[in-house]
Amino acid sequence: GSKSPIERLSDREFEVFQLLGQGRTTHQIAQQLHLSPKTIDVHRAHIKEKLGIGNVTELVSYAVRWLEAKSAGNGA
Fold first, then answer.
1. Between the CA of residue 67 and those of 35, 37, 46, what are the distances in Å?
2. Considering just the CA atoms, what is the radius of gyration of the chain in Å?
């Protein structure tokens, strides 16, 4: 029903989403997660589709804002 779009992401997609929000490049994410850059591109495409985002720039911007909001609301 009223799931947040972020909650629709798989665990791996969520991990990629967070790393994008931290400013990581496709290659950096691929290295960190021990995956190929092509696999990261596929995850990114799925994330954009699930969140209804048109391009990578919007996706990164959304991820950054989401991480900022999460850390601001998380007193720790």
1. 23, 23, 19
2. 12
Helix (H) / strand (E) containing 52: none
Residue 50: count of CB within 10 angstroms of its CB:
16
What pLDDT, in 10s, does the model give residues 18-71? Answer: 999 999 999 999 999 999 999 999 999 999 999 999 999 999 999 999 999 988
User: Which residue's entry shows tokens 């400013």?
Assistant: 23
Q: For the whole model, what pTM was predicted?
A: 0.90
Cα torsion for 51, 56, 25, 71, to the nearest 10°? -50
What's the rounded Cα separation, in Å, for the pair 45 and 54? 10
Task: Give the separation between CA 64 and CA 56, rounded to whole angstroms.
Answer: 12
